[in-house]
Description:
This protein has one domain. It has 7 helices and no strands. It is mainly α.
Amino acid sequence: MLRGGPIVMRDKLCFIRFPALLLIIYFVGKLTVGALGGSYELGLQLFAMVPLTIHLCLAWGAVSRALRGDGLKDALLTGLLIAVVAQLLIFVGTVGSYLIGVETAFNNSMAIVREMRTVSFGEAVGVRAFGIFANGIIGAIAALIGWTLGGLVPGPRKETAESPSNVTS
């Protein structure tokens, strides 16, 4: 077992709560746009989950180094987890859309195979399952880049005699 095992994983899952919440908000937003009759393109413009995921992995990789003092492995795990959360939401959205039989941004062929054609349930599940793996790696790499840039993130502000919190009226 890894050093720390479940405790380390619980800490990482707590650390990515904010990115996970943002991803869930985007997931619900994308479903809502589709349910209200909005186009795939509109849902993509308003709630693009993959670019959000990359940004979150970059930022949380930097934050993990700058504010938590995490090492490289911790940053990689952080990016991997954020990306897997995003891809699991996309997977669930795709499977759910097929099972319910409703057209959403998640089962739109442009989202799955980047062309307009009929995509079978099996093909969609295969593409989305591969996406969990591939985008997990991309998320880890993005977090690595973020961790490398983490030195640019300012640390906590130190209180001084001139700090606004110490100034009296």
